[in-house]
Amino acid sequence: MTPLRCTALAALALLPAATVALAQPAPPLQVAERAPELTADAATVQPGATLTLTGRGFPRNAHIALLAGHPAADAQRIGGAQTGQRGTFTAKIRIRARSAAGAFVARACFDTCRVKASARFRIVTP
Are 36 and 117 in contact (CB under 8 A)? Predict the structure, then answer.
């Protein structure tokens, strides 16, 4: 073995383990999916007015069920929406003219509510 080859082998043996680890390919990055979000355009709304719900983080090109109800009660279906390529939607919901005042929760559900998001709003009387 030539002296140059011996020196090269000795230098490789002396490399720190961290340097060798850096030479290894990095594992693929895990991209966390965005949690679904639902927002209402207003915190308060009057009976007969329109409430705009905006959702994001849902599966793309999916039908979303929209529900609403009192926080401690079962929610009733109030409409639906279709997400686009980015998993977003906007839906305008008309509040019934004879709705009672109080706190409510709007919910956007996909896949029997396995994927869902909610937003609070309050109906106030004039």
Answer: yes
Q: How far from 13 is each of 2, 5, 8, 17, 110, CA to CA, in Å?
A: 17, 12, 9, 10, 57
The pTM of this model reads 0.72
- Neighbouring residues of 125: CB distance < 8 A, sequence distance ≥ 6: 46, 47, 101
C-alpha to C-alpha distances, 86 to 36, 57, 114, nearest whole angstrom: 12, 8, 19
Q: How far is 78 from 65, CA to CA, in rounded Å?
A: 8
CA distances from 113 to 24, 108, 110 (A): 43, 8, 5
Domain ranges of the chain: 37-123
In tens, the pLDDT along 6-60 reads: 554 455 455 554 444 455 555 544 434 679 999 999 999 999 999 999 999 999 9
CATH architecture of the domain with range 37-123:
Sandwich (2.60)
